[in-house]
C-alpha cells in the first residue's frame, strides 16, 4: 500500500518559492529521509502533507486521500511531530495524551487509557504522568510529543526532527521505535532531520533538498556511488609513496585515482578482477597494504558534497 504520493508539489509565500516541484513517494514499511539545510522546504512539505497549509500547485495524497480534497481523512491517517512540540504545558502528561486521544477518536476509555500507558511506559514517562508538562525538560517534552503522534496508531508518520533535544540513549530509543514501526508494523514514515546519523541508520531512501528543490534522491548506496563516481575500490596503505601512487595510476584498467597519501580511492570497471593486480603492483612498488575494501562515504560526506554542488 502506498503511504504518501507527491507529484510536482509547489508552495509559494508571495515572491518566495518554499517548495519547488517536489515529487516523491513513501510506501508502507519505508522510511524516507528528507534532508536539507534550514529554509530548504522540509517543514513546509510536512505541513502540506498534514493539511496545515495548502499547496500552491501540484498534488499530494496520503493513504489515497488528496490533501486538498479530503483533509479530514488525511488528518485521521497521519501522526505528526512538528519542530515545536506544541503541548499544553498547564496540563499533565497524561492529560495531554488523553486530550489528543479523544480528539483522534480513540475509544472506549479502557482502550484509550491502555494505549496512553503503553506509550508513556515506552518513553519512560509513566512515573511522571501526573506532572505538568511545564516542568518537563526539552527532551521529555519531545518524547511526549512523539507519543502523542502515535496515540491513534496512524499508518503514516510525519516526523520533523524527532531526536532533537534528546540525549544519546533517548535518541536511540526513538530510532529503535521508528525501526519497529516501519519494519514490523509497516508504517510509512517521512523523516525530516538535520541529524545525518538518523538518516544513515533509519532511511531506506533519502531525498536531499535545497531551496525547495530536489538535489538528489535514492538509496544511501546509490548516493554513495554518485559521490565517489561509480564502482570504486578503497586501499589503505601502511607505507605509501609517490611512486606507489604513480604505479597504480598508470595501470590500464584504472579510470581515476584520488589519494591523500595513505588512502587510495580507485575507480574501476571491474573491481573483482582488478583488485589482485592492483595489490600486487603496490607491493612491487614498495607499498604495504593495510586494508582493501569498497568505500562507504558517510551520509555527512554525501550531503555536504551534493548540497555544495547545488549551491554553485
**What's the CATH topology name of the largest domain?**
Rossmann fold
* CATH class category name of the largest domain: Alpha Beta
Give the strand order of the largest sheet, numbering strands 1, 2, ... along the chain: 6-7-8-3-9-10
Task: Provide the CATH architecture of the largest domain.
Answer: 3-Layer(aba) Sandwich
Q: Keyphrases for this structure?
A:
312 residues, 11 helices, Alpha-Beta Plaits, four-stranded antiparallel beta sheet
Please give a structural write-up.
The chain has helices at 42-49, 71-77, 93-103, 109-122, 138-150, 168-184, 196-202, 220-228, 242-249, 271-284, 299-310; strands spanning 2-13, 16-27, 31-35, 57-62, 65-66, 78-81, 156-160, 188-193, 205-210, 213-218, 232-239, 254-259, 263-268, 288-293. It is of the alpha/beta class and 312 residues long. The protein has 2 domains: 2-218, 3-Layer(aba) Sandwich (Rossmann fold), CATH 3.40.50; 225-295, 2-Layer Sandwich (Alpha-Beta Plaits). It has a 6-stranded mixed β-sheet with strand order 6-7-8-3-9-10, with helices on both faces. A 4-stranded antiparallel β-sheet has the order 2-1-4-5, covered by helices on one side. A 4-stranded antiparallel β-sheet has the order 12-13-11-14, covered by helices on one side. Strand 7, helix 6 and strand 8 form a beta-alpha-beta unit. Helix 3 packs across helix 4 (109-122), helix 8 crosses helix 11 (299-310) and helix 9 runs antiparallel to helix 10. The model has no long low-confidence stretch (mean pLDDT 89).
Amino acid at each position: 500500500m502506498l503511504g504518501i504520493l507527491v507529484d510536482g508539489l509547489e508552495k509559494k509565500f508571495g515572491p518566495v518559492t518554499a517548495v519547488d516541484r517536489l515529487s516523491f513517494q513513501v510506501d508502507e514499511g519505508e522510511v524516507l529521509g528528507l534532508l536539507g539545510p534550514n529554509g530548504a522546504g522540509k517543514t513546509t512539505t510536512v505541513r502540506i502533507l498534514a493539511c496545515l497549509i495548502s499547496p500552491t500547485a501540484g498534488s499530494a495524497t496520503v493513504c489515497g486521500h488528496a490533501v486538498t480534497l479530503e483533509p479530514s481523512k488525511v488528518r485521521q491517517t497521519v501522526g505528526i511531530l512538528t519542530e515545536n512540540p506544541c503541548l499544553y504545558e498547564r496540563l499533565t502528561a497524561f492529560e495531554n495524551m488523553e486530550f489528543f486521544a479523544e480528539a483522534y477518536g480513540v475509544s472506549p476509555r479502557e482502550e484509550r487509557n491502555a494505549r496512553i500507558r503503553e506509550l508513556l511506559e515506552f518513553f519512560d514517562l509513566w512515573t511522571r504522568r501526573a506532572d505538568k508538562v511545564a516542568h518537563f525538560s526539552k527532551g521529555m517534552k519531545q518524547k511526549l510529543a512523539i507519543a502523542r503522534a502515535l496515540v491513534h496508531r496512524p499508518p503514516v508518520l510525519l516526523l520533523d526532527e524527532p531526536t532533537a533535544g534528546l540525549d544519546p540513549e533517548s535518541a536511540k530509543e526513538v530510532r529503535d521505535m521508528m525501526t519497529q514501526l516501519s519494519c514490523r508494523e509497516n508504517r510509512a514514515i517521512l523523516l525530516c532531520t538535520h541529524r545525518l546519523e538518523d538518516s544513515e541508520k533509519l532511511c531506506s531512501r533519502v531525498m536531499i533538498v535545497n531551496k525547495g528543490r530536489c538535489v538528489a534522491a535514492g538509496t544511501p548506496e546509490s548516493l554513495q556511488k554518485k559521490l565517489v563516481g561509480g564502482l570504486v575500490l578503497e586501499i589503505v596503505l601502511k607505507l605509501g609513496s609517490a611512486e606507489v601512487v604513480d604505479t597504480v595510476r598508470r595501470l590500464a584498467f584504472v579510470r581515476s585515482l584520488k589519494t591523500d597519501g595513505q588512502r587510495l580511492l580507485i575507480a574501476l570497471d571491474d573491481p573483482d578482477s582488478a583488485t589482485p593486480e592492483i595489490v600486487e603492483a603496490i607491493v612491487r612498488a614498495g607499498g604495504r597494504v593495510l586494508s582493501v575494501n569498497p568505500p562507504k562515504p558517510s551520509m555527512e560526506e554525501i550531503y555536504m558534497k551534493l548540497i555544495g554542488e547545488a549551491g554553485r
